[in-house]
Design brief:
The protein has 460 residues and is α+β, with helices and mostly antiparallel strands. The protein contains twelve helices and twelve strands. Helix 2 runs antiparallel to helix 5 and helix 9 runs antiparallel to helix 11. The protein is rod-shaped, with a radius of gyration of 47 Å. InterPro entries: BphY/WalK/GraS-like, HATPase_C_sf, HATPase_dom, His_kinase_dom, HisK_dim/P_dom, HisK_dim/P_sf, Sig_transdc_His_kin-like_C.
Length: 460
């Protein structure tokens, strides 16, 4: 019989789909975030460098009052004072070029004398600085249109940073009277930016990996829980159908059993065989009464939404079940042994527990066609009673053991496979368990039934 979980398992894998989708999304987010943050980091570090340079230039020009030269380029005294300030820039090794522009964009001073007196009309950064904003721009030569001040730069300045520093008329004035432009090859700054960007990308990659593993761990657990719940739901549905089927079959079996019993009571033979027939008739009547009692209990269970629980002494119940199956064990040459003493009471429903014990014993007897010992023992541990049934059959394979508790799975020819599945579900409702193990060296099968021990309050 196909399991209801098969379409779910074969047609849809939540973990795999989420892993692929989350990997694509997380990688995309990590790349986008890394690119955005690295760009912001680079821009901020360059701008900070420009602000430091602007502070230095303004302090230099304000100290000797030479900034006014940009507003009065014809004044010889201001010119000499301004040129003296510019000599400080020429002695600095970091800038590869420095240009001073007047308010109309004309180069009034430059470390490259060939540029002096020329005017660059196509320079958006210069125009922005003339409006009072510090402009920091980085790039590579040849990557965009060439500007006037790029002329003559060597190939060593392939990567450059240019800062356009607006020069104000005074300390408290907001009027821009010129712009000082500095070209730099930021070796140390570039190394610092490169190291910071590398750390940022490593952090983004690490965060992406951690996020991916964490999310997939959560979804993997959710997927397992969903599959387990789906399996339990499928099993519950199958068991519900099995219980309904068992109830219907039980009702239909009562009439033929009644007819068999009546026929057995009316058996009458010759005096020579009367004793033998009487024995067979008594066996038939006893078997029919036993089957009818089982059917009565099964019908009662199938109609009960929830079985009432009470303290149940298991030892007398084991004796009763063994005596009931004694004729079958005699035919199979099975010899049973029950642990001496009385086991503590367990919390269970007596008729249903009796059916479970009968089912376990019947399976054990069928597993020993050549006879042998059948041992029943018990052990109390941490408020649980562990009842063990050891047969001396041929044992059980692992793949069969795992499937035996599935509804409608049976190793018997013509078996319905309801007993063990119903037993496990019923015991689980009582906070108990049932499990099977193959004994060492193929010496048979061990069935362990665990039930909670009834408290003292339940015995009063």
């Amino acid at each position: 019989m196909l399991s209801a979980t098969a379409p779910f398992a074969a047609g849809f894998s939540l973990r795999k789909r989420f892993a692929v989708t989350s990997l694509l999304v997380i990688v995309g987010i990590a790349l986008g975030l890394g690119w955005l943050l690295s760009d912001m980091l680079t821009e901020r570090m360059l701008r900070r460098e420009g602000e430091v340079s602007m502070e230095f230039i303004r302090n230099l020009l304000v100290t000797d009052h030479s900034a006014a030269f940009l507003n009065h380029p014809q004044d010889k005294e201001l010119r000499d004072r301004f040129m003296g300030s510019m000599e400080h820039l020429e002695t600095m090794t970091e800038p590869v070029r420095a240009n001073a522009f007047s308010a109309d964009g004309t180069v009034v001073w430059s470390t490259d004398k060939a540029l002096m007196g020329r005017r660059d009309a196509d320079n958006p950064e210069l125009q922005e600085a003339l409006h009072g904003d510090l402009v920091v721009h980085s790039g590579t030569l040849g990557s965009s249109h060439e500007k006037l001040e790029h002329e003559g730069l060597s190939q060593q300045t392939h990567y450059y940073v240019e800062s356009y520093i607006p020069i104000l008329a005074g300390d408290k004035s907001t009027k821009v009277i010129g712009v000082l432009e500095l070209y730099k090859i930021p070796v140390q700054l570039s190394a610092a930016i490169h190291a910071a960007v590398l750390q940022l990308w490593v952090a983004c990659a690490g965060s992406a990996v951690v996020l991916f593993l964490a999310l997939n761990g959560v979804v993997g657990r959710a997927d397992r829980v969903m599959r387990e719940q789906q399996a339990r739901l499928s099993e519950s549905q199958a068991l519900a159908s099995a219980v309904e089927l068992a109830g219907a079959v039980a009702h239909n079996l009562r009439n033929p059993l009644a007819s068999i019993r009546t026929a057995a009571e009316m058996m009458d033979g010759s005096p020579a065989h009367q004793a033998e027939q009487q024995e067979h008739r008594d066996d038939i009547i006893a078997s029919v009464d036993r089957a009818n009692r089982w059917i009565t209990e099964l019908v009662r269970v199938s109609h009960a939404t929830q079985l009432p629980l009470a303290p149940v002494p298991p030892t007398p119940m084991w004796h009763d079940c063994l005596e009931e199956l004694q004729p079958e064990m005699n035919r199979q040459r099975v010899v049973w042994h029950l642990q001496e003493g009385d086991a503590p009471d367990v919390v269970a429903h007596a008729p249903m527990l009796r059916q479970i014990l009968l089912s376990v014993l019947a399976n054990a007897i069928e597993a020993m066609p050549r006879g042998g010992p059948l041992a029943i023992s018990w052990q109390e541990q941490e408020g649980q009673l562990h009842m063990t049934v050891d047969d001396s059959g041929s044992g059980i394979r692992e793949e069969v053991r795992q499937a035996l508790f599935r509804p409608f799975f049976s190793t018997k020819s013509g078996g319905l496979g309801i007993g063990l599945a119903l037993a496990r579900r019923t015991l689980a409702q009582w906070q108990g368990t049932i499990d099977l193990f193959s004994r060492p060296n193929g010496a048979g099968t061990r069935v362990v039934i665990t039930l909670p021990v009834a408290g003292e309050e339940g015995k009063d």
